[in-house]
From TrEMBL:
The keyword Flavoprotein does not apply. It comes from the Bacteria. Residues 512-654 form the PA14 domain. One of its GO terms (biological process) is arabinan catabolic process. PROSITE patterns: PA14 (PS51820). This is Beta-glucosidase. Belongs to the glycosyl hydrolase 3 family. Keywords: Hydrolase, Membrane, Signal, Transmembrane, Transmembrane helix.
């Protein structure tokens, strides 16, 4: 262990600088006479830059040397890369002060120079590619990946993602950049909450409503991110979130108390995916959620974090808090009196790393120790897990020992990764309706029209928690690539939500006789000192640093501010509309009065009315500042709102028979805790699941005009499409398809790819089929507990037809630990090659309180036209696990079960076989 007795040697006024490398402590002063043995507290010595100054009998001593022949790099076990990570962590902990220990529990852990410990950030995101970084591969949103029912391809997606994270991280470090938030080796992915209600804005981040599908996909994600289980170092540390019973609503998540969740719902629906990732994928992190479960905040919940997670499942790794969740203990939930008590409660429950927006509660842990609320040994338990994780990454070792550190930048968005992104986007495409074989479209010289708010919309395809791709193929681009010449007419037609369009007044502005806005930029966040550049902007503001773009020449990508000024003379007395949004700090003044102020970590467009008087002059001023490590975005326009003229649109479409309408939602409407105030939307969630009215009206107008309407619905959640089944000839659910989403859509539209996607969520008819949003009972929710939706879970059409034959079962009666083999013939009776996804569901006979059916197996089965293939699916004993009310836990109980197999969860699409468990 650590040796407290060091020999101090030196010469008068001698200074010895330590050299890099293993022999940096072999000092020439070793031959000097020993002046004085000195005992130094190991917690006070700066071992990284060892320069100690003291005076003994007037002699200035400035060098330290250890026992002859022993280099510092080999002295302490925590520096020995051959030891187990946990051993190294234990040894390092023994040399830390309490304050240093506590700082290492922060999500932004500071460096400890005296020990050579680097700064470390725990918060990065890799939801579908490295998030909050530029020039990366952006894969489809997870809900779209789930529609592929292809966990093998999901593994490829996240193996590619982890390559890009490692390459970008080490390139940044080599270029002298610090380990910052959103560029780290700890990624808080995947989100494996159950998408139990389509109104939840963050459901797009999940793998759908089914525990088994979520488990299969989640395991693939973790293995792709963390690398081979037998590797010496973890590629990344993945994180299963949010533990537990967390799936909306966004607006009440900091105060919500869930105290009526039935044990059966908890164990059969909300916990299985977490259990699978802990026990089958060895995930290294679990994130606890914001809300309370049975009166205890999830990040301070002993039942969740101690009894279930650690005792029952044997989880040995790191628990991280959702950002600000510990602070919520005393600011929102009111279960703690102050930050000190909240910090003690969090650590005692087992939350190891605290994430905050500002102000760590955990910084009060030394005070909590002094007051007897917690002892240092409890803090050491958390720190042991935290430091073990860092050692497992190779964070404490030289890069040449860590193979992952050698991944080159050339892998980032390389052709292979682009192809994986395209293939996953193709496999996510889910055909919901195809009347009279309206699809695939025929290539011809005839014109088609592509209209709608999502047709020419790149950011929509990126989803949320996203990076910025090198290039994006949007849906309009994809369709144009399939058609000759100028045979595609494009018109936006309408907004996603608003029933009006804005006639911009931007060009009516001027300042000192110069049109537009005067823009002034500073390379600091406070508009201080001399400006960098002043220029005139004559078009609506749409500025971003994404892709390493400067707001203006010479303006930094970070740490800058801007002032935009103009004067506007109102042409009439009327109400005008301001539309704006920003990632960063934005304030808008009119005639010196503040009319709006935002401080956001993402761009959320908002609108607000403002009354003006004819011929009156209005001075408009926009102040902007980039914040923290976030990229900078700014959008601004203003003008007069007018009604949408669908008659004018129909006139433009004269002579065109086929119209592709690309609509749905976007992450400007659904997402995490968003200040969105449109009708039908609240806080990032929805209050009405129907397609927004303006889009419904546009589709009706197209139908009334006699057009063949192909509807491409882009969304991260289920939409109530009852009206659209009447007004549209075909409906393709395209999700948020990533950087190549537009190409995937076009490949399906024109028959270059035969769609095979299946719904990972139930598409309800309308909101009347939904229970109260805050009611977490599964009764009446998802395919497992309701049977009358518009489109069933597991449903999706093809351009060919499949016939599922009678299955052969290996055994009709088995013991409680035996598996069953199912052999299911699948015939392609159509004229195109295609892939069917065979699904197997289990139902316990006589279980009146249990699910109608629950997915327990699936397999993608490619079948050539006119051929038959036998799908072999193994049903393990765990497939028959259900909650045992008597024992209070999951168990395989003897009795009769039904195996339901087919092409969707709808009863009409399933065949039945019986099996008995002894």
């Amino acid at each position: 262990m650590w040796n407290d007795n060091l020999l101090i040697t030196g010469k008068e006024q001698t200074r010895k600088e330590l050299l890099p490398g293993p022999s940096r402590y072999a000092s020439s002063v070793a031959r000097d006479r020993v002046l004085h043995p000195l005992k130094i507290n190991r917690k006070q010595l700066n071992y990284n830059n060892v320069i100690i100054k003291l005076t003994v009998a007037g002699l200035a001593v400035v060098a330290v040397i250890f026992s002859p022949g022993l280099s510092f790099a080999q002295q302490h076990p925590w520096q020995n890369s051959h030891l187990r990570s946990e051993e190294r962590a234990k040894d390092l902990i023994s040399g830390l002060t309490l304050e240093e220990k506590v700082s290492l529990l922060f999500d932004q852990s500071p460096a400890i120079p005296r020990l050579g410990i680097k700064k470390f950030n725990w918060w990065s995101e890799a939801l579908h590619g490295l998030a909050n970084n530029d020039n990366v591969t952006v894969f489809p949103e997870p809900i779209g990946m789930a529609a592929s029912f292809n966990d093998s391809l999901a593994y490829e997606v996240f193996n590619a993602t982890s390559d890009e994270v490692r390459a970008k991280y080490h390139e940044a470090i080599r270029n002298g950049k610090e380990n910052r938030r959103f560029l780290s080796l700890s990624v808080w992915t995947p989100n494996i909450n159950i998408f139990r209600d389509p109104r939840w804005g963050r459901g797009q981040e999940t793998y759908g409503e089914d525990p088994y599908l979520t488990s299969r996909m989640g395991i693939a994600v973790v293995k792709g991110l963390q690398g081979p289980a037998d590797a010496r170092y973890r590629k990344l540390l993945a994180c299963a979130k949010h533990f537990a019973v967390h799936s909306g609503p966004e607006w009440s998540r900091h105060t919500l108390n869930l105290f009526q969740v039935k044990p059966r719902d908890l164990h059969e629906t909300y916990l299985p995916a977490f259990k699978s990732l802990v026990m089958d994928a060895d995930v290294r992190q679990v994130m606890c959620a914001y809300q309370r479960l049975d009166d205890e905040p999830c990040c301070g919940n002993n039942r969740l974090l101690q009894t279930i997670l650690r005792q029952d499942w044997g989880f040995k790794h790191i628990v991280v808090s959702d950002c600000g969740a510990i602070t919520d203990f005393y600011t929102s939930h009111k279960v703690s009196s102050d930050a000190t008590h909240a910090a003690a409660k969090g650590v005692l429950a087992g939350t190891d790393v605290e994430c905050v927006w500002e102000g760590y509660a955990y910084k009060n842990l030394p005070d909590a120790v002094s007051r007897g609320l917690i002892n240092e040994e409890e803090i050491d338990k958390s720190l042991l897990r935290v430091l073990t994780g860092r050692f497992e990454l190779g964070d404490m070792d030289q890069d040449d020992l860590v193979p992952w550190a050698g991944i080159p930048m050339s892998v980032v968005n390389n052709p292979q990764h682009r192809e994986i992104a395209l293939q996953m986007a193709r496999e996510s495409m889910t055909l919901l309706q195809n009347k009279n074989e309206a699809l695939p479209l025929q290539r011809s010289a005839k014109k088609i029209a592509v209209i709608g708010p999502n047709a020419d919309n790149d950011p929509m395809l990126w989803g949320n928690y996203n990076g910025k791709p090198v290039r994006t193929i949007n849906i309009l681009d994809g369709i144009r690539s399939k058609m000759p010449g100028n045979s595609v007419l494009y018109d936006k037609a309408c907004d996603l939500v608003e029933n009006k369009v804005t006639q911009s007044f931007f060009t009516h502005c001027s300042l000192t006789d110069k049109k537009g806005f005067k823009a002034t930029y500073w390379n600091n966040r406070n508009m201080e000192g001399g400006s960098v550049i002043t220029e005139q902007i004559t078009h609506p503001l749409k500025l971003t640093t994404a892709g390493q773009h400067e707001f203006a020449s010479g303006v930094q990508l970070e740490n800058f501010s801007a002032l935009y000024e103009t004067e506007f003379v109102a042409p009439a007395t009327e109400e005008i509309i301001f539309k704006c949004g920003a990632t960063g700090s934005m304030k808008i003044y009119v005639n010196g009065t503040l009319i709006t102020s935002t401080n956001n970590w993402r761009t959320l467009l908002s609108r607000f009315p403002f009354k003006v008087e004819k011929d009156k002059k209005y001075k408009i001023e926009i102040q902007y500042a980039q914040l923290n490590n976030w990229q900078a975005d700014l959008e601004f326009d203003f003008g007069r709102e007018v009604d949408i003229d669908f008659d004018g649109l129909i006139s433009k479409l004269k002579g065109i028979e086929t119209v592709v309408f690309v609509g749905g939602l976007s992450t400007l409407l659904e997402g995490e805790e968003m200040p969105v105030s449109y009708p039908g939307f609240k806080g990032g969630d929805r209050t009405d699941i129907q397609l927004p009215e303006v889009q419904r009206n546009c589709l009706k107008a197209l139908k009334a005009a006699g057009k063949q309407v192909i509807f491409i619905n882009c969304s991260g959640s289920a939409i109530g499409l009852v009206h659209e089944t009447q007004s549209c000839d075909a409906i393709l659910q395209a999700w948020y398809g990533g950087e190549s989403g537009g190409q995937a859509v076009a490949d399906v539209l024109f028959g270059d790819y035969n769609p095979s996607g299946k719904l990972p969520v139930t598409f309800y008819k309308d909101s009347t089929q939904l229970a109260d949003f805050e009611d977490y009972s599964m009764k009446g929710r998802t395919y497992r507990f309701m049977s009358d939706p518009l489109f069933q879970f597991g449903f999706g059409l093809s351009y060919t037809r499949f016939l599922v034959g009678n299955a052969t079962i290996s055994k009709a009666e088995v013991g409680r630990e035996e598996s069953i083999g199912m052999f299911i013939p699948v015939s392609n009776t159509g004229k195109r090659n295609g892939t069917e996804i065979i699904q197997v569901y289990v139902r316990k006979v006589g279980d009146s309180d249990g699910p109608l059916k629950t997915l327990r197996g699936f397999k993608r089965v490619p079948v050539a036209a006119g051929k038959t293939v036998t799908a072999m699916i193994t049903i393990p004993s765990s497939a028959f696990e259900f909650f045992d009310e008597v024992k209070g836990k999951m168990a395989v109980m003897p009795g009769d079960y039904e195996l339901l197999y087919g092409t969707s969860s709808a009863d009409k699409d399933l065949k039945k076989a019986g099996v008995r468990i002894r």
